[in-house]
Specification:
The structure holds 2 protein chains of 2 kinds. Chain A has 9 helices and 5 strands. Chain A is of the alpha/beta class. Chain A folds into 2 domains: 80 residues, Methyltransferase, Methionine Synthase (B12-binding Domains), Chain A, domain 1 (Orthogonal Bundle), CATH 1.10.1240; 126 residues, Rossmann fold. In chain A, strands 2-1-3-4-5 form a 5-stranded parallel β-sheet, sandwiched between helices. In chain B, helix 2 packs across helix 4. Among the domains of chain B are: 208 residues, NADH Oxidase (3-Layer(aba) Sandwich); 93 residues, Ubiquitin-like (UB roll), CATH 3.10.20.30; 190 residues, Nucleotidyltransferase, domain 5, CATH 3.30.420.480. In chain B, the strands form 8 sheets. Chain B has a 6-stranded mixed β-sheet with strand order 8-10-9-15-12-13. In chain B, strands 18-17-16-19-21-20 form a 6-stranded mixed β-sheet, with helices on both faces. In chain B, a hairpin with a 6-residue loop joins strand 9 and strand 10. Chain B starts with a strand and ends in a 5-residue tail after the last helix. By secondary structure, chain B is of the alpha/beta class. At the A-B interface, helix 4 and helix 5 of A face helix 2, helix 3, helix 4 and strand 6 of B.
């Protein structure tokens, strides 16, 4: 088995130490950092996401895999910068104003990283302007919003309206999620995508970006 | 706003339910990651417990207009906000930020579980608050499932949570730190209804990972049924104890003693293996179950079947005469027994006993014997056990003093005796080492403290007596405690030239032999049989308990405590008497086998009020054989080590509440004590209390004698003694 596919295998088993060591080894062997990333780390993480969606693995397996991914990335990132690797896309993510729920948003962040995105996590209780300013500042492709309360869900609408007002609505892909949110609500407020869980969100985000790149 | 009740907890005292944590992160035991997660959990636990800063605030207020929900505006509700503080939330965030999703999810779930477990101590406060107002709780509401989120703002303001708990509230009515929770309890005038637990049945959040249905437990009572709510799968005994229904888990809830039996009237409880051991098929079909083994999964109506112990006869000193002297200085002597407490108010100058008080040791709900108490303390109930005994003591002290004018100002000394475990639990000493080899006590020296230093948890020690000198009698070892040293002191072992012996027949059989020059002590595990434990119809020394038995041919005559017609069971003395009488009537052979006629169904003694026959069974006899041979073998071993024969013994003191009522001849007839020593037997009653009374009267003089006795006693370890084992087998028979 090649070092690259071993990275993917060990990542799926959540073996952070092995992943770290294999990434180091692959770099020493002169592998292209982009290949280590895409065919090793991200391949492993996306396989786990797939299996999660098919109910073959559960939350714990995803968590350990994500931790292993993070361990690998810490080593690989300087190399990626050296070779000028571009992320699949950039996403700004936060929980809307009035809502302090953190965990769901953290899990989406985790899965988006695993799909090759560069993530800008702007935290919880985030004002509409902060979403937009951050997206503008970093040149984001996607704005992800989370809300866990029926009382804070309408804040998603506020963000979308503010985007429209500033004439920026079409510049960004808007994705929404959280326990009380559903497809109908997403359509109602004019969001682009609603996904049920973190893994589906990452997959949808990746496909959207790839499709857009194809033009 | 003085009517807001604030409760501050300590994270280390919270118990985190591992099952809840793993359920939340969706990691069941079959998951291949389970072991790894379990390791991480163990690793995180100390960090999490240290970071927790549990606090709660409670207040009654009318439910406001304009919020909506199903509570009628103006109804009195109780607002509760609980939190585990900011530190733990920061730890969760930091783990996520660093990319350690495993630790992030685990700490998050642990914080939630801790917040949940903090409800238990808070419920105690709710009980108190409702008790004062004579109100019950009809229903519990939680936003946003049952009630609009806006209520969190109302509760926040009513509890002044910004200041009292240091919370902030978001525009979406969420609290920061996020590991905080708001509950609204709708009150009812029926104070027997206490539906405190989370009810998910009508919550709108059907995907919630914490979702569970709630079950209702009703306890039938002639004066009005009690009603409680609980999570499905909760132990029935836990539900009852949490709701202040007193249960006597003599075996600590191990399904061994059968004393926590209940009868299911409506709904059903599955039959457990323990049930099958204790109940006949008829009893099972009648709905008899052990509450300590029963997991409640549906709504039930039950009836308690255990005897009411409030009439338990405890032995205290006899009141000597009417005491009219209103200037004399006073003292209080206290014996903390594992089962009962005895208090005497004494004229410190004359030694006259002015009044007495006895009560049940409230710790009994967590186990009948010292071992189950030690286990309970090990499970984190040590603080609870200390509080229970403190409350018992202050109740007794106040009851005695309140009857006498100016008594609080005249109280000069309290003296407390009790076995080593009881005194450890009272003082808040660690007890783990008392339960495992080499059974090392934390401290057993004589202590002179102020009363409020001993009763350090309960905030209600009256001002006048908070500085009163309080003496704890010293002990000899983990097993031979202050109760025995006190007893030896009261029987004059520190000044006797002649050799005497003492047997204390409490939950443990402790004994001593010696004189002022040489003293041997030991203790033997007699088991709970003499207190009614492990005996099919065994009860403590309560009203209606069979205490005396005579068998003449076909006729069996019984006597009950209080001469009550309402026979409740058989107490320890009754157990010894019936055994002795069965032997005499030759219905029991020397190996302990009952006559064929009674072998299967037991020997009938009396009928209960409901027609049920109280029988003494073959299994009961086996229990007695074990218990009595343990006492006798301990005694014989001790004499042998000491080098004394029966002739050398001047007096044999039989002590303990049970010892006082004991018919020594019948005890000798079953071989528990030697026939030869019968003429020398002295029923000494509660010598532990007598020693404490003598200490109060003698004051400083007593301290040296007590310390000397405690230090002089040489302990014989029976468990490793070859002679003991031989004696034990030998005295098992009735010969």
């Amino acid at each position: 088995m090649s070092t690259i596919s071993e990275i993917s295998e060990f990542l799926q088993k959540g073996r952070a130490k092995n992943v770290k060591q294999l990434v180091t080894q692959a770099i020493e062997e002169g592998e292209d950092p982009k290949v280590i990333l895409n065919d090793g780390l991200l391949n492993g993480m996306m396989s786990i996401g797939e299996r999660f969606k098919k109910n073959e693995v559960f939350v714990p397996e995803v968590l350990v895999a994500a931790r292993a991914l993070n361990a690998g990335l810490t080593i690989l990132e300087p190399k990626l910068i050296e070779v000028g690797n571009e992320p699949v896309g950039k996403a700004v993510i936060g929980t809307v104003k009035g809502d302090l729920h953190d965990i769901g948003k953290n899990l989406v962040t985790m899965m988006l990283k695993g799909a090759g995105f560069e993530i800008f996590d702007i935290g919880v209780d985030v004002e509409a302007d902060v979403f937009i300013d951050k997206a503008e500042e970093v040149g984001a492709d996607i704005i992800c919003m989370s809300a866990l309360l029926t009382t804070t869900m309408p804040q998603m609408q506020v963000v979308i309206d503010a985007l429209k007002e500033k004439g920026l609505r079409d510049k960004y892909i808007v994705m929404v999620g959280g326990a009380p949110v559903n497809q109908k609500f997403a359509e109602q407020i004019g969001a682009d995508y609603y996904t049920e869980d973190a893994a589906s969100c990452a997959e949808a985000a990746r496909q959207v970006i790839l499709k857009r790149a194809e033009g | 706003m003085s009517n807001i009740k604030i409760i501050k907890g300590n994270g280390r005292e919270l118990s985190i339910d591992r099952e809840i944590v793993f359920k939340q992160i969706k990691c069941d035991e079959d998951n291949p990651m389970y072991e790894d997660f379990n390791e991480e959990y163990e690793e995180l636990l100390p960090e999490v417990l240290t970071a927790l800063e549990p606090a709660a605030a409670l207040v009654f207020a009318p439910y406001p207009q304009g919020i909506g929900g199903s509570i009628k505006p103006g109804t009195e509700v109780l607002y509760m906000i609980t939190t585990v503080g900011k530190k733990i939330c920061d730890i969760v965030s930091d783990y996520f930020k660093s990319g350690d999703y495993v630790k992030g999810m685990l700490t998050d779930a642990m914080a939630s579980a801790a917040l949940f477990s903090f409800e238990k101590p808070v419920f105690k406060a709710i009980y108190e608050m409702c008790g004062e107002k004579h109100m019950g709780i009809r229903k519990r509401y939680e936003a946003p499932g049952h009630i609009p989120m806006e209520i969190q703002r109302v509760a926040y303001d009513a509890l002044n949570a910004g200041e009292t708990l240091g919370l902030t509230i978001s525009s979406g009515f969420m609290y920061d730190p996020v590991k905080s929770s708001c509950q609204v309890f709708e009150t009812t005038d029926n104070e027997r209804v206490m539906r405190l637990t989370h009810g998910c049945a009508d919550c709108s959040n059907t995907d919630c990972p914490h979702r569970m249905e709630s079950v209702t437990v009703r306890v039938s009572d002639p004066e009005g049924d009690y009603e409680f709510s609980a999570a499905p799968g909760t132990l029935l005994s836990d539900i009852l104890i949490d709701n202040n229904i007193k249960l006597n888990l003599l075996c600590g809830g191990a399904g061994r003693c059968g004393k926590c039996a209940v009868k299911v009237l409506e709904g059903s409880l599955p039959v457990t293996d323990a049930d099958k051991k204790f109940f006949s098929d008829k009893e099972l079909s009648d709905g008899m179950r052990l509450s300590c083994r029963a997991l409640v999964k549906e709504d039930i109506l039950i009836e308690l079947t255990q005897a009411d112990e409030s009439s338990m006869v405890s032995l205290s000193a006899e009141v000597s005469r009417e005491n009219k002297d209103t200037n004399a200085s006073l003292g209080i002597a206290i014996d903390i027994g594992t089962t009962t407490l005895a208090f005497s108010l004494i004229n410190k100058e004359t030694g006259d006993i002015i009044d007495t008080y006895t009560s049940i040791n409230s710790q009994r709900q967590y186990g009948a014997d010292v071992i189950t108490r030690i286990e309970a303390a090990g499970k984190g109930l040590d603080k609870e056990l200390k509080s229970l005994i403190e409350e018992d003591l202050i109740t007794g002290i106040n009851t005695l003093l309140d009857k006498i004018p100016d008594s609080k100002k005249r109280l000069q000394m309290l003296c407390i005796a009790g076995n080593t475990t009881m005194l450890h639990l009272l003082m808040g000493y660690p007890v783990e080492s008392l339960g495992v080899y080499p059974f090392t006590p934390h401290s057993i020296s004589l202590e002179k403290r102020k009363l409020n230093e001993v009763l350090s948890n309960c905030g209600n020690v009256p001002d006048d007596i908070e500085n009163t000198e309080t003496v704890l009698i010293p002990g000899n070892s983990a097993y031979v405690g202050a109760d025995i040293i006190s007893g030896l002191y009261s029987c004059g072992f520190y000044e006797n030239d002649k050799i005497c012996a003492l047997i204390d027949l409490g939950t443990n059989g402790e004994m001593a032999v010696g004189n002022k020059d040489k003293l041997y002590v030991t203790s033997t595990a007699a088991g709970p049989a003499f207190e009614g434990g492990n005996i099919k119809y065994g009860v403590g020394g309560i009203r209606g308990a069979i205490s005396s038995v005579e068998i003449n041919g076909d006729k069996t005559t019984i006597k009950t405590i209080g001469d009550s017609e309402d026979v409740t069971g058989i107490c320890g003395t009754g157990v010894i008497e019936v055994t002795a009488e069965l032997l005499k009537a030759e219905l029991l052979d020397e190996t302990g086998v009952l006559d064929d006629d009674y072998f299967d169904d037991g020997f009938p003694l009396a009928a209960k009020k409901d027609g049920e026959t109280i029988v003494f069974t073959e299994k009961d006899i086996r229990e007695i054989q074990l218990a009595k041979s343990a006492i006798r073998a301990g005694f014989e071993t001790m004499l042998k080590r000491y080098g004394a024969g029966y002739d050398d013994i001047d007096k044999l003191y039989i002590a303990g509440g049970f010892g006082y009522f004991l018919n020594a001849e019948k005890a000798a007839a079953i071989g528990m004590i030697p026939e030869e020593l019968l003429p020398k037997c002295v029923a000494a009653g509660n010598t532990s209390l007598s020693g404490a009374i003598k200490t109060v009267t003698e004051g400083e003089k007593a301290f040296d004698a007590l310390t000397e006795l405690a230090e002089k006693g040489e302990e014989i370890a029976l468990s490793t003694d070859k002679d003991f084992n031989e004696f034990y087998m030998e005295y098992m028979m009735f010969e």
